[in-house]
Amino acid sequence: MSSKPQTWKELDRLTGGLSKPSKMPGLAWNISAFLCIVGSALREAGKPFVCAGCYALKGRYVFPATIAAMARRFQAWTGNPEEWAQGMSASILKAGIPWFRWFDSGDLQSVDMLRDIVSVCRETPGVAHWMPTRERDIVGAYLTEGGKIPRNLTVRLSSPRVGSILPVSKVGPLKGLPVSGVHLHGAKVPRGVFSCPAPLQGGECGECRECWNGRRRVVSYTAH
After folding, report:
1. Structural domain containing residue 92
2. Does a structural domain hold residue 2?
3. In total, how many domains does the chain have?
4. Least CB-packed of 71, 174, 182, 184 within 10 Å?
5. Does residue 15 lie within any of the structural domains?
6. For 52, phi and psi rounded to 5 degrees?
7. What pLDDT does residue 109 have?
8. What pTM does this model have?
9. How confident is the model at residue 50 (pLDDT cuts 50, 70, 90)?
């Protein structure tokens, strides 16, 4: 990795800047949910698909400043992926955070993007990374071509439907990857499924870090 820029101004130019989800214990990087591939198709299909009521297409995510920031992040990656990856690694290390989330809005765009994210994770081995995604085909293609997921990155495959949880794959390239589902408020989750406690904690993670825990195979979230 080449020498890292030291100022936040330069780092933000390379990365588009980091995002700061209010419920999270660390920082994140996001792009517009309108760029989601699978998510956009599910949104058009409507209920009972989770993306029909996408939280990242309302609230603070539709503020002009937020929209502009997400556009800068996407443009930073598309403009120079190598510099973007170097800038992301330097930014995460400079921030001194132990936890990082990929895509509090948006999702993977390609195998190339996943490769770049993996390189960032490898350059920040002391940071726990979590990436929820509905792009099973992209993850599968990356793994099929021989790509590896570093130990400090939890790629959690997300269920497309409210009230359903993806089974953990027992065969194929996605074998063993952790998964997540979405349940309605007040609904009981199946035995063995960890229910996100955020709704009972003011909408925040609090002390919980199970999303980042790859050994926690199944997590379910209350529908937003």
Report:
1. 8-222
2. no
3. 1
4. 184
5. yes
6. -65, -30
7. 98
8. 0.94
9. confident
